[in-house]
Amino acid sequence: MRLNDIQLQDFRNYDSLSLSFKKNLVIFLGENAQGKTNVLESIFVLAMTRSHRTTSEQELIQWDQNQAAITGTVEKKHTKVPLELYLTKKGRKTKVNHIEQKKLSSYIGQLNVILFAPEDLSLVKGSPQLRRKFLDMEIGQIDPVYLYDLVQYQKVLKQRNQYLKQLAENKQTDEVYLEVLTEQLVEFGSKVLFARQKFVKRLEYWANQLHQKISQSKEHLVIDYISSVGEEHWANLQEVQTAFVQALEKVKQKERFRQVTLAGPHRDDLIFFINGKNVQTYGSQGQQRTTALSVKLAEIDLMKEETGEYPVLLLDDVMSELDDARQLHLLETIEGKVQTFLTTTTLEHVKDKMTVEPQIFYVKQGQVEGESAE
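^ thats the sequence. predicted structure below, dont judge the formating
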């Protein structure tokens, strides 16, 4: 899979921009705050329909405009697919092959991307919410059904939390309605849990391969999915549903008191172990960064395994955050395998380590110059 071109209209600091990508390594070179990351962000938004930097779509649209547009052509298995994304103050509109897509799950997955930014190095040490977001983003690209189940789960979760609060405030006792919401929560939540568990096992396999390579076979990486529903490994969906029902029954009284749902995928987490040691708690900063790097790069092979296509890799100023050994490992892993877009303030991290010739765009004050830039 590769992105052949992209066009921006009234996106961030770009009135109009058209770029064609000729090579497998594309570098956006320039000082900070010039617009490099905005271009990379536009590729991410074209793929995922939302930004990794903000939850406000209004921020993506130029302040004096009502709409922003991102279009591009994805090439995969000898077919070319035009993608169109329109961002307005009222919402988003997506098109595949010029045909409007009513469902988000029909659009996401057309262009698979993996983003690696400096904040991703805190994947291991950061909050559980960060790791849940990571899971949802990656599984959603591979499995559109997961995206649907997740959205439905989040809707029911919100309704259930509101009703628990209502029960406490108004002393209502409509147990039937609460049971209906609980059944729906279990139905969609179990599918989310089961998909996450399967994904994490495959992720662990690929991440451990990479981690052993970086550590010269001295370190073995294990990733555990820790669920509020139960820590056992489920053999099928029915087992997950049974465990979920039991978990909710155990916290029933606490939920009434705290007015919030206390079990489900919205409370789950990942724990990383190196040679049996919890990396979050006892690992060095170097081990935490190596683990994060291994996990992010593992997605490349995992997506290829699941979809038959390598994803597009976005590296946002991440080279400067890595030491020489990890830089080399990163570049060796991606070289000749995936189309890579990289932002950097200097070529020092790249020029002596790459054997392929990059396509370079120079970015200064919102202007992009270079071959195939209009």
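The mean pLDDT is 89.
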